[in-house]
Specification:
Bound molecules: guanosine-5'-triphosphate, magnesium ion
Distance between the termini: 20 Å
CATH architecture of the largest domain: 3-Layer(aba) Sandwich
CATH topology of the largest domain: Rossmann fold
CATH class of the largest domain: Alpha Beta
Radius of gyration: 21 Å
Strand order of the largest sheet: 3-2-4-1-5-6-7-8
Order of helices and strands: HHHHHEHEHEHEHEHEHEEH
Length: 309
Amino acid sequence: MSIFDVFKRGLKKTAVAIGRGISSVFTDVKKWDDESFTRLEKELIGADFGVQTSKKIVAGLKDRYQQGEFSGEKDILTVAREELCKVLHEGLRPLHQAPEGPTVILMVGVNGSGKTTTTGKLAALFTAQGKKVMLAACDTFRAAAVEQLKLWGERTGCPVIASKPGADAAAVAFDAVSSAKARNVDYLIIDTAGRQQNQKGLMDELAKILRIIRKLMPEAPHETLLTLDASVGTNAISQAREFAAVSGASAIVLTKLDGTGKGGAAAAVQEEFKLPILFVGLGEAPEDLQDFSPEMYAEAIFTTEIENN
Ligand SMILES: Nc1nc2c(ncn2[C@@H]2O[C@H](COP(=O)(O)OP(=O)(O)OP(=O)(O)O)[C@@H](O)[C@H]2O)c(=O)[nH]1
Ligand SMILES: [Mg+2]
C-alpha cells in the first residue's frame, strides 16, 4: 500500500463527511453567493477545521472565485486543497535530529491519547529506515504499561529498557539514556504515563524525568512529542494547550484521525498550538503512523473519489 493510500484510507470518514457537506451546499447552486460560502464555512467548522482556518479557506476560495478562476464543484476541491496546504505549511519542519549520538524523543500526553502506540509505531518507522532504535518504559504508573511497550519491542525487534511497575520513572530514564549512549543507537524513544497538568505528583515526575535526561545529555530530549487524539473534538484539544506549555512539548503527533469524521483537526491544532505536527496516526497498524504531509492530507480530505459506503 502506498503512503497516499494510508492517508486516503485513514481519512475516509472525514472525506465522506466533507464531500457530503460540499455537495449539499452546491448541488442546486449554479452561482455561488455569500450564503453558499457561509454554508461551506459552517461545514468546515463542523469537520473540526477550526474557525480561523475555515474562514481562511473560504476567504481564499471566495477571492479566487471572484477572479473567475473556477466554477464547478471539482475546482472547489482543488482550491480548497491549496488553501488548506498553505495553512498547514506554516511552521512545519522536520524532526529535530541529534548531530551525533542518539536522538532522544520524549512522549507526553493525556491518558489514552496514543503515547505507547505511537512509541511502537515510531520504532517501526525508524527501524524500516534502517535505524537502531531503543525504547524506554517510563510509564511505571499503570500496571500493564510496561508489558504493552515490551510487546511493541518484540514486534519491532527493538530493545526495551524497563523496570517494575511502581518503580521510579526517572531512574528508568537514567538507565535508558545511559544505555542508548553506550550502545550508540540512533533513536531512544521514551514512553511516559498519561497525565493532566493539574496532577501535581505526576507533573513533578515528568520534570524529574527531564532533569535526569538533561544531566546525561544536556541537549536532550531533541523532541518532546505531545500526542493529541483527533477524535475527541476541538474543545478537548484546546484544553491540552496548557498541558503542552507545562510539559515543554516541541511538536505534535495527531492520533486517531481514522476514527473520526472530523479529521479537519490538523488545521485547528496548528492554529491553536503553534507547534508543528510531525506525524499523524491513521490507524492501529504499525504502518499507519506517517510523516505529516499537508499535500497528502489535503488531497485525502478534499476528494471526488468517495466510494459509497
Ligand atoms: N484507530 C486508531 N487507534 C489508535 C491510534 N493511536 C492509538 N490508538 C488506540 O488508542 C488506544 C490508546 O492508545 P495508547 O497508545 O495505549 O495510549 P496512551 O496514551 O499510551 O495511554 P495511557 O498510557 O493509558 O495514557 C489503543 O487502543 C490504541 O490502539 C490511531 O492512530 N488510530
Ligand atoms: Mg501508554
